[in-house]
UniProtKB/TrEMBL annotation:
Residues 389-492 form the GH3 C-terminal domain. One of its GO terms (cellular component) is cytoplasm. This is GH3 auxin-responsive promoter. PANTHER family: GH3 DOMAIN-CONTAINING PROTEIN. It comes from Maribacter hydrothermalis. GO terms for molecular function: acid-amino acid ligase activity. It comes from the Bacteria.
């Protein structure tokens, strides 16, 4: 019998039974007061009169009326840039020890997002809560003795102006608790390798020496790593070398488009658990097996607001209008897409993180990521969010028994007419016209706005298929290979022209 595993599982189950249930709404009220109370003497807090807000009869309403929305460019230009000039107490007390570098899926240069010690504590606490939640998933005792391979960015962080910089996955991995280090793979030495291909090669070489029970990372790069291990050791599937692999913790993007191609690398089913770790903080994680939705971390270092995701509230660049209404957790409802707004212990205030979400269970504060504000395809009134595009691609996979782990598209003018031009990443051969017609018919049936657009300004659908590796090389060319990198699903015409030029080469 696995003694250690039995002890760990027993502790988790006991802790889960004894721990009081968190009331998400009350937890958020407490977080809100703590955030403003801590930051009231910063430059930002004084500028927006946090002390007055806290002493008012309706502090949240006054907060919303007083503090504007910020995207990265706005808060960086007006506030965070001062941190790089050596100023302190700007939007949060003191100065951050870390900056998370993130070019996202659309930016050409890296964002530099402050990560305070309070945020690292919040991320660590959320990670521990997720470990506790594993007791809900009926995993065998010996699972809790196996290694956990975390495939993120390099932990070899750059030192600049007295702080360290790197992707959030690398910053988090470089600060893992001491008690966890015995389970953590690939280990400190390999994790510090900056070159993605070299790091994956080392993982493949060391793979037989590890007894892996869980994997964690973004699906696209996880698939490439698994393919490398399988090919390096001439295997049929990954369970031939890691027979105890039972849990995959996905994150960064919706797992749905990758499900079929990911499962083809396995010898048996595994439990997939979704997480939502962004450069700005640990947002949510899947806490129970009855749903694939994720529970917001409402008692950590983040206060959430939700702007209804409607075209009249969104500017062409994906930002939101100044007077867009924002809702608190007690005001939201299911069946509505919302733009996620956060205020955090890293000094982000009413910050547009760029994601859209939908509540599946308001009482439990459970959500699904539905897309990106910049990936909202509405050039000719089609009103397609990423989750609707993902559903359409999964429809193709099921209809034609093919795998399409990657895709991108653009509403592009062709001879003066608008077409939705798709590039599908697949190793399967299928007639492009057949795929285009199937996509078109599915979206007409699933989305009335798209159906109306097709009868007016949207002339039709065009499809081209490519090997998935082309998408990976595109990310590599843009110095975005591995780690937290995600392929942009919807491109503007200028970016799409660069993409098509790359494809032709």
């Amino acid at each position: 019998m696995a003694i250690l595993g039995s002890v760990i599982k027993g502790f988790l189950e006991l802790r889960d039974k004894l721990a009081p249930d968190t009331n998400p709404v009350e937890a958020q009220k407490k977080v809100f007061k703590n955030l403003l109370g801590t930051a009231k003497d910063t430059d930002f807090g004084r500028h927006y009169n946090f002390e007055t807000i806290l002493s008012s009869k309706q502090p949240l309403k006054l907060f919303k009326d007083s503090v504007p929305f910020f995207d990265y460019n706005k808060i960086n230009e007006e506030w965070w840039a001062k941190l790089h000039d050596g100023e302190t107490d700007v939007t949060w007390p003191g100065t951050p020890d870390y900056f998370a570098l993130s070019s996202g899926t659309t930016g050409k240069t890296s964002k530099r997002i402050p990560v305070t010690n309070e945020m690292l504590d919040a991320i660590r606490d959320a990670g521990i809560k997720q470990v506790y939640a594993l007791s809900n998933f009926d995993l065998p005792i010996d699972f809790f003795e196996k290694g956990i391979l975390m495939l993120g960015s390099s932990t070899d962080l750059n030192t600049k102006d007295g702080h360290k910089e790197g992707e959030i996955s690398g910053i988090s991995a470089s600060n893992i608790p001491t008690w966890f280090q015995g389970f953590y793979k690939p280990g400190e030495e390999i994790a510090q390798i900056d070159d993605w291909d070299e790091r994956v090669q080392k993982i493949a070489e060391e793979a037989p020496n590890w007894d892996i029970g869980a994997l964690s990372g973004i699906p696209s790069w996880m698939e490439l790593m698994l393919q490398k291990v399988i090919s390096y050791h001439n295997l049929n599937h990954i369970h031939e070398i890691w027979p105890n692999f039972q849990v995959y913790t996905s994150g960064g993007v919706a797992f749905g488009p990758y499900e079929k191609s990911f499962n083809s690398l396995l010898g048996k089913p595994v439990t997939v658990i979704d997480t939502y770790l962004a450069s700005e903080g640990f947002i949510a994680f899947q806490a129970r097996p009855e749903t694939d939705a994720m529970q917001l971390v409402t008692d950590g270092g983040i206060y959430f607001e939700f702007v209804p995701f409607k075209p009249e509230y969104i500017n062409q660049d994906g930002s939101i209008i100044n007077n867009a209404p924002s809702l608190s957790l007690e005001e939201v409802e299911t069946g509505q897409d919302y733009i996620l707004i956060i205020s955090t212990v890293s000094g982000a205030w009413r910050y547009l993180i760029g994601d859209t979400i939908e509540f599946t269970n308001v009482e439990k504060a459970e959500i699904k990521i539905t897309g990106r504000t910049k990936f909202f395809l509405n050039t000719v009134g089609s009103q397609l969010s990423v989750n609707k595009l993902d559903d359409a691609v999964q429809h193709l996979e099921m209809t034609f028994d093919i795998k399409i782990p990657e895709y991108t598209l653009c509403a592009k003018r062709v001879d003066g007419e608008f077409y939705h031009c798709w590039y599908l990443g697949t190793e399967n051969e299928k007639d492009n016209l057949t795929l285009a017609n199937a996509l078109d018919e599915h979206l007409k049936g699933a989305n009335n706005n798209y159906k109306v657009a097709r009868s007016k300004a949207l002339k039709g659908v065009k499809v081209k298929t490519l090997l998935p590796s082309v998408f990976h090389e595109w990310n590599g060319m843009n110095k975005k290979k591995g780690g937290q990198v995600k392929m942009e699903r919807v491109m503007g015409e200028d970016k799409f022209a660069e993409w098509e030029e790359f494809v032709q080469k």
